[in-house]
Design goal:
Radius of gyration: 25 Å
Order of helices and strands: HHH
Structural class: mainly alpha
Oligomer: single chain
Strand content: under 5%
Helix content: 55-70%
Shape: elongated
Number of helices: 3
Length: 74
Amino acid sequence: MTSSKGWTPERRAQQAARIREQQPWLKSTGPKSAAGKATVSRNAFKGGYWRELRDMARDLDQCLLELRRGLDKF
C-alpha cells in the first residue's frame, strides 16, 4: 500500500538505509553568514502573535462591517 506521497514500505526502507550509510548529519555545518544564523535562530519559534493579529483583524472587520451598515441607513 502506498502512502499519500507514493512511498512504498520497500522504498521507505531503501531510503532509510541510504541515509544511514551516507550519514549527512555528520557533514552538516550549519549556517555561516550572519543572515543565515539569524534565520535559523527562529526555527523553533512557534509564533504566538499571529493568533492575536488574526483575532484583531476579525474584530476590525466586524467593526468596519457595522460602520458600513450604519452608514447605509443614512
